Amino acid sequence: MLLAAVCALPVLASYLAYYVWQPSGRANYGELIGPSPLPRTALPPAADQQPLAAADFDGLWTLLYAGPAECAAACAEALHTLRQVRLAQGKDSRRIGRVWLQTGAGNAATLPAEDADGLRIGRLEAGTAQAWLAALPDAASGAHIYLIDPLGNAMMRFPPRADAARMVKDLQRLLKYSALGR
């Protein structure tokens, strides 16, 4: 009887651990989303920039902010967070790009020089908006920060007022284990 219990107990414990017990915590801060490829159509440029195409995302991890062109305080804070998160990666910061995808009509706001430096800006217009918004879950409902992988897929979403320290940890973990990206 004791021998049967010793043999059956590990099998029962493994069954419970696999099928019943679900860990409550998670390691990442950002919300993982099913990889959705960005459209290959180019976006019109905003203010003295080149047109933004999906090919611009190839080979780089990209932090993409999708928000209105009229950049209020929340928008400016998010764009500053993108810059800080990228700089906090140290030598890996060259593997990360930053993009502001302007949704809606309106005049683009002027950003501080340090936040605008190296920031690519694309403007969603009637012809291209539908395809791009379909690739970025909930982008039309409000401002979000997305992480685009080096293959051009949206794979993670952060809240509009994201905690920069937690974003840094997510990116450090990703860059450490990923060979993708320049």
Automatic annotation (TrEMBL):
Origin superkingdom: Bacteria
Listed InterPro entries: Thioredoxin-like_sf
Name the UniProt record assigns to this protein: Cytochrome oxidase Cu insertion factor, SCO1/SenC/PrrC family
